[in-house]
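Progress note, sequence design subtask.
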């Protein structure tokens, strides 16, 4: 019986070893494999770094042990502990003079106003924490909003959130008046969650120095900050991950 040869015919063209990469695509030469891997490395190097949003937080109360200023401190702690990509800058408005356009000279503003406006311009988003005075916005916060609105308006096209610690209403009327002012200033407010903190109603929400000690309010504040982060990123045309702005709470939170 004749034997069958299994020897492959010899060809004049050299054979190249077949290379396989991790996703099962093959390349006929080592040069192509190198080029493919170099391309993957280049894509990784070009990947955008995580965006860090600067959050300008403003308290409408100037009192030393203010619960509203305490809400801002709590927001800063929450961002540091559990919300990467958010940096809270407390913007002090106690040094602003009362709005008086006579103080504007040759298109400039008093030094304290210039410094305040620069901080507003540098922010990616805003957090307003304010008590309710006589069914409306506190005087210091309204003064700050007005100074920032002097031409050119410093507030426009940024995301914002509002929370309040106040008396029986929790500051709800103040918040809705801030929203009304924000319409003219082109501020984009998150709609939910809403936080109205009844500062003087049991159980105790703040310690004697105005620090937030209520876990439930802290958790709602965390959800608010995530929602604010998501809106700010969307306004900047940047991606939002699944942990941000998931709409967990659709109802106002009155603590």
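Output:
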């Amino acid at each position: 019986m004749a034997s069958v040869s299994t020897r492959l015919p010899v060809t004049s063209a050299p054979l190249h070893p077949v290379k396989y990469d991790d996703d099962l695509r093959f390349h006929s030469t080592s040069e192509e494999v190198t080029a493919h891997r170099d391309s993957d490395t280049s894509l990784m190097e070009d990947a955008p770094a995580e965006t860090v949003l600067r959050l300008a937080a403003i308290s409408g109360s100037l009192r030393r042990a203010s619960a509203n200023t305490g809400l801002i401190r709590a927001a800063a702690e929450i961002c540091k502990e559990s919300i990467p990509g958010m940096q809270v800058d407390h913007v002090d408005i106690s040094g602003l003079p009362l709005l008086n356009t006579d103080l504007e000279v040759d298109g400039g503003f008093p030094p304290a106003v210039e410094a305040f406006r620069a901080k507003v311009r540098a922010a990616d988003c805003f957090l307003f924490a304010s008590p309710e005075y006589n069914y409306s916005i506190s005087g210091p916060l309204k003064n700050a909003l007005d100074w920032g609105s002097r031409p050119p308006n410093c507030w426009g096209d940024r995301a914002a959130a509002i929370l309040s610690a106040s008396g029986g209403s929790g500051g709800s009327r103040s918040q809705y008046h801030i929203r009304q002012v924000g319409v003219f200033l082109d501020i984009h407010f998150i709609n939910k969650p809403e936080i109205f903190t009844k500062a003087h109603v049991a159980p105790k929400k703040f310690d004697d120095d105005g620090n937030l000690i209520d876990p439930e309010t802290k958790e709602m504040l965390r959800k608010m900050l995530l929602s604010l982060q998501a809106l700010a990123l969307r306004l900047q045309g940047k991606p939002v991950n699944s942990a941000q702005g998931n709409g967990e709470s659709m109802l106002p939170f009155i603590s």
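Residues 1-47 have pLDDT under 50 and may be disordered. Work on this subtask will continue into the next period as scheduled.
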